[in-house]
């Protein structure tokens, strides 16, 4: 066999391998939700699964829950087992950024392949309906007077809820290192603590507290987003004179060491998901903002967000300088 023939055959085999790999990514996908069933990452993963299959963008999509440590257990499993596999994806978000730092995780987001930011979940600050605090200015005044006496309920330490409590404390004119934050493993536990009068205020995605707000059991003081939610009569922090904005964004990542072609195929697939009418309906149902960002702009955002979150967590003592 001549050198020329060997070369042509090698090129053909490489091309067939790439096609097979890309085709497999299009046919069968696995999405890791690095949290338990029912939470935001699980909901995002299953929403993606639903739209991919409904629109024929994948033959089958499996969602696997790997909970623990703010998503870093799922991240570690993904980094260690999915290398070079274009059929595997990982849902993550701002909470994982914080957990990597606060837990001193042995893995980080530089080890995976960014695909796209998908949704933004505006956070809401609430107090129990029977609280003497009626407005955000009163909560800010209490925090400024003595932050230790204001107890916050929210999700995992270092997550979006904790970040908002710290930034609010700083904006109120107090030391964020003194924020009195109680981390709960689930929204239900945080809600029970608020309704039971065990904490001063709570933070979560608006969707998680919406039914209790509408039922009159919780009083919504402010949203952390840059603009109001459509159909929701709750002002933003910025409207009320506090220059604080935190969005609980969620994103999807590809496996380590996939090729540029595989990355493009996955990015194109996710773009079709977010452009679909089914996805638009999901955003409406769940109260999520369309926060889509892909390619180099998403990579730049991810870098900036890691720096911002690190700065906040250092200010509250969760991360040492």
From TrEMBL:
Q: Does the keyword 4Fe-4S apply?
A: no
Give the superkingdom in one word.
Bacteria
The signal peptide here is 1-25
Pfam families the record matches: TctC
Asked if the keyword Signal belongs to this entry, the reply reads: yes
Give the Gene3D superfamilies listed for this entry: Bordetella uptake gene, domain 1, Periplasmic binding protein-like II
Name of this protein: Tripartite tricarboxylate transporter substrate binding protein
What phylogenetic lineage does the species belong to? Bacteria, Pseudomonadati, Pseudomonadota, Alphaproteobacteria, Hyphomicrobiales
């Amino acid at each position: 066999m001549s050198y020329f023939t060997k070369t042509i055959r090698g090129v053909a085999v490489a091309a067939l391998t790439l096609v097979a790999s890309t085709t497999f990514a299009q046919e069968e996908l696995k999405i890791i939700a690095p949290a338990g069933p029912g939470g935001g990452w699980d909901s995002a993963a299953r929403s993606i699964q639903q739209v991919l299959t409904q629109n024929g963008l994948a033959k089958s999509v499996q969602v696997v829950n790997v909970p623990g440590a703010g998503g870093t257990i799922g991240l570690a499993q993904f980094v260690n087992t999915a290398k070079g596999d274009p059929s595997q994806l990982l849902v993550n978000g701002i909470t994982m950024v914080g957990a990597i730092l606060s837990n001193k995780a042995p893995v980080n987001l530089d080890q995976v392949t960014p695909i796209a930011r998908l949704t933004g979940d505006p956070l809401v600050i609430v107090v129990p309906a029977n609280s003497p605090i009626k407005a955000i200015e009163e909560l800010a005044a209490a925090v400024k007077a003595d932050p230790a006496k204001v107890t916050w309920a929210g999700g995992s330490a270092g997550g979006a809820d904790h970040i908002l409590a710290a930034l609010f404390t700083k904006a109120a004119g107090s030391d964020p290192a003194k924020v009195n934050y109680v981390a709960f493993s689930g929204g239900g536990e945080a809600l029970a603590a608020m309704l039971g009068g065990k904490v001063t205020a709570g933070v979560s995605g608006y969707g998680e507290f919406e039914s209790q707000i509408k039922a009159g059991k919780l009083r919504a003081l402010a949203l952390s987003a840059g603009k109001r939610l459509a159909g929701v009569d709750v002002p933003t922090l910025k409207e009320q004179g506090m220059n604080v904005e935190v969005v609980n964004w969620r994103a999807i990542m590809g496996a380590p060491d996939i090729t540029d072609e595989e990355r493009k195929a996955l990015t194109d697939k996710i773009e079709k998901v977010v452009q679909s009418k089914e996805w638009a309906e999901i955003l409406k149902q769940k109260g999520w903002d369309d926060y889509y960002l892909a390619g180099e702009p998403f990579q730049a955002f991810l870098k900036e967000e890691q720096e911002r979150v690190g700065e906040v967590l250092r200010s509250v003592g969760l991360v040492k300088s």
